[in-house]
Amino acid sequence: MSQDQLEQSREDSEREARSQATQVSFWFEGQGTESPVLRVMNRSPDPVGTSLIGFQLRIFSADESEPDTMASASIVLDALPPCSLQTIERGQLRTRNADGEFAKLPRRIMYVTDRSLVLSDRDRRAWGRLDDRLVSKEKLTK
């Protein structure tokens, strides 16, 4: 087998391994409002296992004398059915306070940054989607 054929075979194998993970996407609607909504879509014909979505929130102060605050938030989804769109409303999202306890999002205007999604595909491989990039588990932990 020639070097070109080996390279093509390796590329085909990687493309196949990534195929389901490339069909899962997520985004926020309502940026800069009091009611952001998270949408998660699985366009593949197979279910996706447990997924973790994490993000940072910039929460605008109630009055100009206070600084804006940043908060980390996350949500765990047990499974994403095949060919589905899930909507996660503001009330389902939680932040972690300084004591490590979970709390509901404050009722103020916010902006979402630093989005990431970690999922396991039909072959139980872990993948991460960092904004618009897809990376394997090995690259996530480096």
Tags for this model:
Immunoglobulin-like, three-stranded antiparallel β-sheet, 142 residues, mainly beta, seven-stranded antiparallel β-sheet, 2 helices
Q: CATH top level?
A: Mainly Beta
Structural class by SSE content: mainly beta
In helices, the fraction of residues equals: 10-25%
Q: Describe the largest sheet.
A: 7 strands, antiparallel
Our count of domains comes out at: 1
CATH level 3 topology:
Immunoglobulin-like
Instruction: Count every beta strand, where a strand is a DSSP E run of 2 or more residues.
Output: 10
CATH architecture: Sandwich
CA(first)-CA(last) distance: 33 Å
Structure description:
Helices cover 14% and strands 43% of the residues. It has 142 residues and is mainly beta. It has one domain (19-137): Immunoglobulin-like (Sandwich). The chain has a seven-stranded antiparallel beta sheet. A three-stranded antiparallel beta sheet has the order 1-2-5, with no helix packed on it. It is elongated, with a radius of gyration of 18 Å. The mean pLDDT is 80.
What is the topological layout?
Layout lengths: L2 H16 L5 E6 L7 E6 L8 E9 L9 E9 L6 E5 L5 E3 L5 E3 L5 E11 L5 E5 L2 E4 H4 L2
Antiparallel strand pairs: 1-2, 2-5, 3-4, 3-8, 4-6, 6-7, 8-9, 9-10
